[in-house]
Each structure stands twice: as C-alpha cells, then as structure tokens.
C-alpha cells in the first residue's frame, strides 16, 4: 500500500504506538521501519522533577539530520522545540542523569548579575 500511494505522489504519515520497555529501541511492533523514509521518536521522561516530552529524528532517508534528543512542548501557540539534552545520559532507559562533566560545568558557572533598568526622571 505504501509503495502504491507514494507512487501516486501521496505523502503517507503513519504512527505506531510501541510499548516502551526501555531495554530495546523498537520503532514498530510490526517490523516495518525499513519501509519508512523518516522516523521521529517521541518519548516521555522524568527530568528535574517534571514529566517532559523528548524527540529525536532517528532516520530520514537520503538526508543528513541532527541526532540530538531535544525537549519539546505543545502549547496553545503550537509546537515549541526546547533545549538539546546532550548533557544527559540514559534518556532512553527512562533514568536520565546529568553527565559528570556537564555537572561540573554547571556548578562552576557563577550567576551573572542581573541588570535592572530604571526609568529616567526628567
């Protein structure tokens, strides 16, 4: 069906809900990932005490793409991409942890003074 429809110039978008075991990375319960031109992974994780959505582009046939995992939100104004989560490991296991080098860098940063503008009097 995919071949016939794409041959007619129709763009197909299929979704598959995969039971998340956090031990393997399966993209379809039917073994059909090889048929797709693109795979975008969406997952929920607990990070910094909050439930967050993350996504990653796993595959785009014939294209070079970012392999970063990024936080995202769906707001009343639309889809908002968040920060890269490259400083965390274990995102796909359901147990993300800040990498030691990133934790040191974060701890070493001193807070920048906040500038407050005051209205001028005339």
* Annotation, overall tally of beta strands: 6
What's the overall geometry?
Answer: elongated
Unreliable stretches (pLDDT < 50, length at least 5) are 110-118
* SSE run: HEEEEEEH
How many separate helices? 2
How would you sum up the major sheet? 4 strands, antiparallel
Query: Helix- and strand-based class?
Result: mainly beta
What is the C-alpha radius of gyration, as a whole number of Å?
20 Å
**Strand-residue proportion:** 25-35%
Give the terminus-to-terminus CA distance: 74 Å
Average pLDDT rating: 77
Task: Tell me roughly what share of residues is in helical segments.
Answer: 10-25%
Report on this structure.
- The protein is built from 2 helices and 6 strands; from the N terminus they run αββββββα.
- By secondary structure, it is mainly β.
- Helix content is about 10%, strand content about 30%.
- The longest helix has 9 residues.
- The protein has a domain of about 70 residues.
- The termini are far apart.
- About 5% of the residues have low confidence.
- The radius of gyration is 20 Å and the shape is elongated.
- The protein has a 4-stranded antiparallel β-sheet with strand order 1-2-3-4, with no helix packed on it.
């Amino acid at each position: 069906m995919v071949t016939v429809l794409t041959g007619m110039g129709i763009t197909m978008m299929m979704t598959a809900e995969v039971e998340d075991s956090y031990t393997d990375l399966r993209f379809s319960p039917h073994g059909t990932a090889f048929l797709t031109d693109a795979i975008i992974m969406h997952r929920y994780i607990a990070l910094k005490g909050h439930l967050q959505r993350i996504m990653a582009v796993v595959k785009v046939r014939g294209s070079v793409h970012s392999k970063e995992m990024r936080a995202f939100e769906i707001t009343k104004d639309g889809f908002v991409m968040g920060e890269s989560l490259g400083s965390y490991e274990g995102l796909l296991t359901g147990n993300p942890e800040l990498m030691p080098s990133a934790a040191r860098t974060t701890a070493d940063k001193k807070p920048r003074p906040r500038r407050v503008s005051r209205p001028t009097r005339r």
